[in-house]
Amino acid sequence: MRTLRRYQLGFCVSLSVAAAGVVYARQAPASQLLPWAGWARCQVNVQGPGYSDQQTHTWIVTGGSPRVEGAFRIFPATWNVVGAGSLQKTTATS
């Protein structure tokens, strides 16, 4: 028989992007867009019985001009993730 357990999930997002670029992006074609610059960070923390996972994802928008792929404008950026976790398996006794 399987027992479902509730896990605690912590989630936080920080965002810093040049606001002028966001407003201007809706009104101008890609060739006329101002370059964006800024960063976004997402921290994920998960805890459960015998389980732990922590991750920090960071995106840095480098400020170059976007390229167009279909309906999307792709801005140059870098992505980095660091984290750690652990799992302790337990053996059921009869």
* Helix and strand element order: EHEEEEE
Sheet bearing the most strands, described?
Answer: 4 strands, antiparallel
Radius of gyration: 20 Å
Note the overall shape: elongated
Oligomer: single chain
- Mean pLDDT comes to 75
The fraction of residues in strands falls at: over 45%
Q: Order the strands across the largest sheet as they lie in space.
A: 1-2-3-6
Helical amount: under 10%
Identify low-pLDDT runs. 1-25
**SS element count, helices:** 1
Q: Helix/strand/pairing class, anyone?
A: mainly beta
Tell me about this structure.
This protein is mostly beta strands. The protein has one helix spanning 19-25, and strands at residues 8-17, 38-48, 51-61, 67-69, 72-74, 77-87. Strand 4 and strand 5 form a beta hairpin.
List the helices and strands and how they pair.
Layout: E1 8-17, H1 19-25, E2 38-48, E3 51-61, E4 67-69, E5 72-74, E6 77-87
Antiparallel strand pairs: 1-2, 2-3, 3-6, 4-5
